[in-house]
Write a structure and sequence with these properties.
Blueprint: H1 4-11, E1 21-29, H2 32-47, E2 54-59, E3 63-66, E4 83-85, E5 92-95, E6 99-105, H3 115-131, E7 138-140, E8 143-152, E9 155-169, E10 172-180, E11 200-201, H4 213-228, E12 231-233
Parallel strand pairs: 1-2, 1-12, 3-4, 9-11
Antiparallel strand pairs: 2-6, 3-5, 6-10, 7-8, 8-9, 9-10
Helix pairs in contact: 1-3, 3-4
Binding site for substrate: 88-95, 163-165, 176-178
GO biological process, one term: protein lipoylation
Main location: cytoplasm
Length: 238
């Protein structure tokens, strides 16, 4: 439950001028360094008033990324996949096929200039998208990302279904979120995801929801409009 003040701040994430955000989807697997270079260039152009905001959806080949708070001990198998040190917030995470990565380049100068509210907006975006599939999800105090509760006879646990890691420069965001649609969950075994030892990871398909990537994209698109406003067709940078 958001506090009243934070709820008010989140409500300001829609631009007053209602200008649409470009929405672009890359086909195939996108090289991570190329994606970071493209994001940095687009964020700089947005800050300079030379380009519109962009949400860029893609998939990466299998890899691990280390955020600014990552701990070396949380990299359990350094030789398994390439490891990329990155300037986003957070710790270690995995990207790979079957996981929808969404890089979010928004001008927070026009959206309340409140990073905490922006992160809560990202959380609400993911939670709303999962609700499109009838999957209840929420955030947890002290844990980054979005979580689902799983129960069976005599047991219950909470698993992470989406990660969030962002960077803000000149009040323009980049990096973003990753939603597990149908990745190989064993690939998370080479790291301690987000530094959290006592919980696991899951995906829509692992939860028994046979979602396609296109269906996940449509759910993300629908929920994004509710939180951040209008969308328009855009072109993927890579």
């Amino acid at each position: 439950m958001l506090s009243q003040s934070l709820s008010t701040a989140v409500s300001k994430l829609i631009r007053e001028d209602r200008a649409p955000v470009e929405w672009a989807v890359s086909t195939g697997l996108v090289d991570y360094p190329a994606a970071v270079e493209a994001m940095e260039a687009r964020a700089a152009a947005i800050a300079a008033g030379e380009a519109p905001e962009l949400v860029w959806l893609l998939e990466h080949p299998p890899l691990y990324t280390a955020g600014v708070s990552s701990k070396d001990d949380d990299l359990l198998d350094a030789g398994r996949f390439p490891v990329h040190r990155t300037g986003r917030g957070g710790q270690f995470t995995y990207h790979g096929p079957g996981q929808r990565v969404a890089y979010v380049m928004l001008d927070l100068n026009r959206r309340g200039k409140d990073v905490r509210a922006f992160v809560r907006g990202l959380e609400q975006w993911i939670i709303g998208a999962l609700d499109e599939f009838g999957v209840p999800a929420d955030v947890r105090e002290g844990r980054v990302g979005v979580w689902v509760e799983r129960k069976g006879p005599g047991w219950s646990r909470e698993d992470k279904i989406a990660a969030i890691g962002v960077k803000v420069r000149k009040w323009v965001s980049f990096h973003g979120i990753s939603l597990n649609v149908e990745p190989d969950l064993s690939h998370f075994g080479g790291i301690v995801p987000c530094g959290i030892h006592e919980h696991g990871v899951t995906s829509l398909v692992d939860l028994g929801v046979p979602a396609t990537m296109d269906e996940a994209d449509e759910a993300l698109r629908t929920s994004f409009r509710r939180v951040f406003g209008a969308l328009a067709a855009g072109q993927a940078p890579v």
